[in-house]
């Protein structure tokens, strides 16, 4: 069977990324790369926190000094340290991985969360073109090597959207579970309120409260305070440029990196967040009538989330596979609007954009996301009466 031109491009992207990954693996000496960072890199934070919690009080995982000493006692050659800045719910989730050797834990974690990610996408897109895009998407390939939680959070977001039609309560459970990384759920309440999805809202609220309080009761109530303090440390470290700002593409940290005063950076971020929330509300409002496609409102929600939240890392852009598939499907079915194809190419490549920020202090993500959100808004206004292009009809 002859492949389409898009499929051939995707196959080429898969081959290039797989080759680069294999070449990079050859640079490792044991667990460590030339920078003395372990395979899986960010997963080390989860593994160390789990190991420490199995041996000591859970609040110790949030202690920067104690965690540094603990990590270097196990891996003396490690460069720097891995801070634990997640809520007690996520600590309880990864606790079992501390019982496993590092490589086994990393492989198990990556395989399980990747499966969840693909299952979440399957709830929303099933056409062949979309799965070529997903297989080639840089966010997926970067996620395989990073060991972060982007597959898990993207899976919860995608499942929350994909289950809205037939299972609104389960959709709310998935959205509520994003309490493990609450800033990525920032605009879900706006969208659900606009759509009058009351059962989903209730289920999300109950789930979020439960997964916040029950693990804290199990691990110790002090973990909530320790988590709050760790988040304050992250905010301060970004403001003081003590963390690699190039990894944080949101408008707020980028403005700080340019020397913009903190107050002014917050004002600009606040204005962007408010505008993004208004667009999401407006695009989700027609869904309150119980009909329509989720492709454009859902795409707007994901794109706007990464404009509205002041803190996210480059690996979180794994979420963008969903709007990429939806918008390509819309363009194929209804025709691409002027400038639509170049924007979608940029969206596809966006997980690699931080490499540019590493060389020159320019973050492309806010501009690409803003342009795409505007593109979705225009498309929604002009196509509002058209039939949906994907399998998801909303009946909330």
Structure characteristics:
globular, 19 helices, 396 residues, 0% strand, mainly alpha
Number of strands: 0
* Poorly predicted residue ranges: 387-396
Query: Helix proportion of residues, in percent?
Result: 55-70%
N-to-C SSE string, H for helix and E for strand: HHHHHHHHHHHHHHHHHHH
Class inferred from helices and paired strands: mainly alpha
| Separation, N- and C-terminal Cα atoms | 40 Å
Report the major sheet. Answer: none
Beta-strand residue fraction: under 5%
Shape: globular
Radius of gyration, in Å, reads 21 Å
Mean pLDDT metric: 90
Total number of helical segments?
19
Explain briefly what this protein structure is.
By secondary structure, the chain is mainly α. The chain has helices at 5-25, 43-55, 64-74, 88-94, 102-122, 128-136, 138-146, 150-162, 168-176, 188-194, 198-219, 222-239, 251-257, 262-284, 295-308, 321-334, 340-349, 353-359, 365-383. The model is unreliable at 387-396 (pLDDT under 50).
Would you write up a description of this structure?
Helices cover 64% and strands 0% of the residues. It has 396 residues and is mainly alpha-helical. Helix 4 packs across helix 11 (198-219), helix 8 (150-162) runs antiparallel to helix 9 (168-176) and helix 17 crosses helix 19 (365-383). The longest helix has 23 residues, at 262-284.
